[in-house]
Each structure stands twice: as C-alpha cells, then as structure tokens.
Amino acid sequence: MSWSFAKTWNEVIDNRKEREVVARDHLWPSEAGNSFIDTYLKMQGVEFTNPPNARSFRKFSAGEMFEWVVRMILVKGGIFKESQQHCEYQYEGLLRVSGRADFTIGGKPKLSNIDKIVSELEAPEFLKRSGGAIIKDLVKQCPKGLDETMLEVKSVGSYMFDMITEKDKPLRHHEIQLFHYLKSTGIKQGKIIYIDRDSCLVKEFVIKLDYERVEGLYKSWIEKATYYYKNKIEPPKEKELVFEEGKFKKNWGIAYSSYMTKLYGYELQLDYEKPAQSKASRYNRVLKRVEDKLSMTAKNLEAIEEMKKEGYDIKKLIVKQ
Fold first, then answer.
1. What pLDDT band is residue 304 in, cutting at 50, 70 and 90?
2. Of 230, 261, 290, which one is at a domain's C-terminal end?
3. What is the per-residue burial (b if ≥16 Cβ within 10 Å, else e) of 60-74?
4. What is the tens place of the pLDDT at every residue in 252-283?
5. In the predicted model, what is the mean pLDDT of residues 178-202?
6. How far apart are CA 83 and CA 61, in angstroms?
C-alpha cells in the first residue's frame, strides 16, 4: 500500500506555518514575564534566528488537541460561553496589551441532561466518565451555578508538570497572562489548567482580579517594556544563569529565545543548556561548601571569583538560601 496514515499526519504537523514576524506597537499577554530583549526585537519585526522547530510544532499541536478536549467537555456540560475572546487593556501612558483568552465559562448546567449527553458523546470512555463527573461535581459544589470564569489551558511535559506540582504554584508568566484577561474584561476570577501530556493528570490554580501581587508583576512588566520601546533602547541580554529559590539555574530566557543565535551565539538549545547546567551545578556545590563553612579548594575560590565578576554577592546568596 502506498497510502500512509502516519506519513500524512506527521507531514501536516511538521509543516505547520508560524505567523510572520511584523513590527507592532503593542504587547501580547503571552509575552508577559518573558525576556525583554526577545519582546523588543519581536516588536521591531526582527526575523527569528531560532524559529520553532518541528518538535515545537508537535508540542503546539498536542496543546491544541488538549484544548479541544476541554472545550468539548465545557460545551456538552452547558457552561461554555466563549473562546478566543479578544482582551485588550492599556494603562495611561503605557503600551497597549492585546491578546485572546482560551475560554470564558459560567452558568448552571442542567444535571438531568448530563447522563444522556455523556452517553451520546463520541469520545474515549475515560473522557465520558471524567466529563460527566466534572459537571456533576460543579452542580454539587456550586448549586447556584458557576460565576463567570476565565480558563487558560496549558499542556506541559511531565518534567514541567512535576515541577509545578512540587512547588504548588503556577509559572509566573502564566499568572500574569491570565491576570491580563481578567483586568481587561472585569471578570473576577480565572483558572490556569495544567495538563501533563504524558500522564493526562491535571493541576489547576485560581487567579483573582484583586490579587495585588500579580497586578504588581503585570504592571511593572508593561512599564519596563514601554520604557525600552518608547526610548528605542535595546534591553540587556539575559544572564547566562539565574539565581532562584536558593540555587543557580539555567536561564529559560536564553534556552527558549527566538534569537538565541543572534544574541548568544548558540545554534541549538543543547549547545547552551549543557555547559550552563554544568556551570550552575559547580556554583551550587561551592555555595553549599561556603554555607557549611568547609575549606575552599583552588577551584572553589576560582568559582567564587567568577560569581563576583558576574555581579553576585556571595554573602547575600547564602542568606537567600
């Protein structure tokens, strides 16, 4: 047989077309909390040196499939209100932020129809069971119906899902992104839904419009992006490593930069990640020795000098741990 299901499927995914990079005078919510220099170059219409590859496109496609599953459950349950709602907000004197939200939901489903709807659903058995149970639990927990809610669905790999679960908090840029949708619509609450692509487990976090901390992150991000854009100042490059939660770590602002080759000289993500991880591990070992008041080797002292040259105060790093 010359026909191949797999061949056509894979070709369609691999040949996905990314949207053209054109100059613009506004920010996207999905850029929130990300690299300022990447955002600046995108707004100038600079072509990517490291566009999404075939693997990235496959992840995008998997994400779209999971979104479709969630939408199907919401629609059948009678609580779906809108998808891809245009959400725009602008503080006075700052850049406009414009984008589209995944879903707006709310209302009270008719419980009497749920079993019939689920039985007629053309879907795998576990989706029938989970969809029906989710709607029934909604009726039980919210007998008066669900208040209008923004829903942002994120599919992630198992490594990222486990990290989010362990920390029990959403990624900062996802918080800011969802907050934008709330701020622009006036809807009081939203949920970030993380789906593990490998296990189908789900984790969710509630974000509310009156979260002062999140609005602070949202507005300060816009203020900095506005400063660079309006003054035609190219933001500084990302640091090779970041220091978070008491440890040096790889900088995802470099690893996932659309301009990784242009800005940092790396052709492939692995070209950056392997030496960066090695350096982070070396720095962390030395910090642990300092914290435990152990004697320093020549190599340890060399690493300390490197950290100082990169602008880190060792005493303050130890305090942060």
1. very high
2. 230
3. eeebeebbebbbbbb
4. 999 999 999 999 999 999 999 999 999 999 99
5. 95
6. 18
Same domain flag for 264 and 138? no
Pairing between β-strand 189-196 and β-strand 146-156 as defined by DSSP bridges? parallel
Q: State if pTM tops 0.90.
A: no
Per-residue CA distances from 57 to 11, 49, 52, 84 (Å): 11, 16, 7, 20
- Domain assignment of residue 154, yes or no: yes
- 57 and 188 part of one domain: yes
User: pLDDT tens, 144-159?
Assistant: 888 999 999 999 999 9
Are 12 and 75 members of one domain?
A: yes
Same domain, 196 and 280: no
The arithmetic mean of pLDDT across residues 2-22, rounded, is 83
Q: How far does CA 99 lie from the centroid of its chain?
A: 15
Residue at 235 is within a domain: no
Q: Is residue 55 part of a domain?
A: yes
**Domain of 315, in residue numbers:** 241-320
Number of domains in the chain: 2
| CA–CA distance, 219 with 176 (Å, rounded to integer) | 9
- The share of the chain scoring above pLDDT 70, in percent, equals 94
With respect to residue 52, please indicate whether it lies within any of the assigned structural domains.
yes
- pLDDT given for residue 245 in this prediction: 85
Q: What is the pLDDT of residue 185?
A: 96
- 241: β partners: 250
Helix (H, G, I), strand (E, B) or coil at 2: coil
Last residue of a domain, one of 174, 206, 230: 230
Which whole-number Å values give the CA distances from 262 to 38, 51, 289, in the listed order? 11, 12, 37
